[in-house]
Amino acid sequence: MQQFKNILLIGTFSVLTLAFISCNAQKKVATLAKKTEAVKTETRPTAEKFNSEKNLKGSTLPQFSFITAQGNEMHTKDFPKNKPVLLVLFNPSCGHCQIILEQIRDNIKEFNFATILFLTGEQLKDVLPNYVVNVKVDKMEYEILVASDNSDATLKIFEYEGIPQVMIYNKEHKLEFIYYKEAQNMNMLRYLKK
After folding, report:
1. Confidence band, pLDDT 50/70/90 cuts, at residue 6
2. Which of 41, 66, 158, 162 is the most buried (most CB within 10 A)?
3. How far is CA 178 from CA 27, 45, 87, 93, in A?
4. How many Å apart are CA 12 and CA 150, to the nearest integer?
5. Cα separation of 137 and 133, whole Å?
6. For 53-192, which CATH class?
7. Taking each helix axis from N to C terminus, what angle separates 95-106 and 185-192, rounded to the nearest 10 degrees?
8. How wide is the angle at C-alpha 179 spanned by C-alphas 72 and 55, nearest 5°?
9. How far is residue 59's CA from residue 2's CA, in Å, rounded to a whole number?
10. What are the sequence ranges of the domains in the chain?
11. Does the structure show a pLDDT above 80 at 44?
């Protein structure tokens, strides 16, 4: 009799767990369907699409400070004038983020005319020194800045559409384009050269 109660109890718990998982999965699928509908192809910055007026096409590169993987504090106001900026909001554990970093690293001579900054949240600063070594950007001829935000800029400009969020600013440091999750070299170069 006790064995029957145990089996009944386990069966009931299993059914409840599956029902809970199914309900959560349905909610996630519905949310993902809405996001997929909103982002079918390249997403152009418009007032209707973006959460913040700071990310409208033509808006100026935000002024903020950050700490590089090497521990140096820098500021966007010190970026060279007349040089475009490729700002990538990323997470060191993100596969898409690493793919974009590796694409740029492997084709760095095509990107050397731009300032390149991969920026993550301050809470991940301790993993960056090892990260730059693992992705082989610590000893490059042309610099790719990998840094953590120490001024809450990521909170102000991240759109929550996916990571990486690749923001392309022209040589006047005006926003030209934003990619979410994936970006191809040729597309990024096209907007950087504007």
Report:
1. low
2. 66
3. 27, 7, 10, 21
4. 49
5. 6
6. alpha beta
7. 70
8. 70
9. 70
10. 1-38, 53-192
11. no
